[in-house]
Amino acid sequence: MGDFEDEWLEHDEIQGAQAPAPRTYNNNSRVYRPSAGRGRGERGVRGRSNESNWRSRGNPAGGDYQNTRRDFPRREDGNKKSMYVSSQKIGRIIGKGGSKIRELESESQAKIKIGDSSGTETEVTLIGSDEAISKVEDLLNDLLQDYKPPPKENHNQSAGSGGSNEFFKTNESGVQVIDWDKLNNFHDQHQQERWENLPPIIKDFYKEDPEVAALTPAAIAHWRLANNDIQVKRTFDDKPGLKPIPNPVMTFEQAFKHYPEILDEIYKQGFTKPSPIQSQAWPILLRGEDLIGIAQTGTGKTLAFLLPALIHIEGQVIPREERDGPTVLIMAPTRELALQIDKEVSKYQYKGIKSVCLYGGGDRREQIKVVAKGVDIVIATPGRLNDLVMARHLNIINFSYIVLDEADRMLDMGFEPQIRKSLFDVRPDRQTVMTSATWPPGVRRLASSYMKDPIQVNVGSLDLAAVHTVTQKIMFVEEGDKEAVLLEFLNNMDPNDKVIIFCGKKATATHISTELAMKGIECQSLHGDRDQSDREEALADMVDGNVNILVATDVASRGIDIKDLTHVVNLDFPRHIEEYVHRVGRTGRAGKTGTALSFIARNDWAHARDLIKILEEANQDVPDELELMAQRFEAMKLRREKEGGGYGGRGGRGGRGRRDRY
Ligand code: AMP
Questions:
Q1: What percentage of the chain's residues is helix, strand, coil (to nearest 5)?
Q2: What is the pLDDT of residue 577?
Q3: Cys-Cys link to 499, which of 19, 272, 294, 567 (CB 3.0-4.6 A)?
């Protein structure tokens, strides 16, 4: 049903909704295959059907190509394939601020170049391996499919004369546009009918332990203070009729004594007591309430939402085997995090509950197969989830427990449209959990549109807790000296040291890792330009200790749990100070200490003041030079403001360059 929803489509795209589907040309001839009218069942062959007809640019057999087609602006490695797309639909491929094209590229590992337009058609060039091109073609074909109304099901008055034309109207200028009111009404009514036919969701599984019920307000206040100063409240208005915030549990038994198999699984892990977020989140979630956890990775937040999810799955009216589609959805911003959650989920066996991890870069067809066989939990990145939902490989009608993990990060990465699209059709009476390290307006907006009277649990004073166990050093370097200083640092490393080197751009990460390799220094690299399998291998090599140096972009700044990481080097200072906290927090974990070394170049001066605050808060030395830098930046800002120009500095969110970063 996501077809109905398209607040992100531009006006001209809407008008183009009935334009023909793209034609795909091969590179060296005029052979093309129109994809309009192909059934979804043909998806499996779509991307490969004319593989033998086209040749890569480097292939001598494709030499005639240059004579027949326009040259490309610059040379790229890999095969190329051109397709011609209705110019009115190009906006769909690009997406808001380029978000869609980024997502398509990241999911397929192919590059997409938007070429010249002939007016009605625009050339789109796909560059990459055969597999990547095939994948991106599949994705583009799905994306560019035109709206078709669903088959009629008992919506007598709303169906009107039938056919998609009923949802179009002619505006004052005589142009045919979508009649959104009519479409929204139709959609609401259709959804209502579907939801009404679903069994009610059972949400409340909580029986409060007498010891927990007997806790006094003073004892609870004391416990919360002693446990990372945990704060609990209703996020929005505390309306009359809502239940009071439940007391925290202090032991695993107080939460799960009615679920001995769950307790056994916890005991197998050897944990001694619930983490602060677990103590407070389990009663809330077991009672069926929506929860917002402001907590970082490393706080035990995954288990906080996972164990109640297992009980929720098993406790529904319709037996699992008879359910139409999975019950629990966990959305995570990056593949690494999704895989990490998947790993965590697989540690807990309960009643044969099955899960699948859906992420861009993983084998799409294999993922579809696993979903088709039947799973209870879906862990997914927003792009791949949206892809499979839109292509109707995943039935989301029975999702009744949803987790948006690291919501702030998902928004930072531009995933809001995919989140909104994927959740559009999920029944509104579901239980929803959201975790986030920060609480910016975007996350608040997401919470207010997707959650019902959520209870918010804040663990500690945000991220700073981890930073307290890390010695933070600052080194002032010229941009051009960074590499040499880094080499000196690496040469002085202890054999048991493990280090992540954070770079500001994917290209820098590639350059540094290549340079190190050429100097015989073994390392791995992790960034968005690497294949998924390479990224997984890089992480595994670090975790297993096969290599001790990881060169990474901010893809690795949050969530990644590498035990025994002793050092974090910020070769490039991050663009946002939150990212600094996240990077530094990769070390000094689980009771260990760590060291962070940040290279500060002249043009990092905009961050100096924020960095000073963090250093002071963590009782670290603040170099005089940093204070001077902050003062110089503030003076410059003041001067510019007086001159009326303002400071258009580098650290703004979004904008140019983001695509190169992760
Ligand atoms: P998370 O914050 O979910 O990424 O969890 C970080 C790590 O903490 C994972 O390796 C968990 O297995 C571990 N963990 C979760 N709950 C507990 C607990 N109650 N006690 C000790 N470790 C835990």
A1: 45, 15, 40
A2: 78
A3: 567
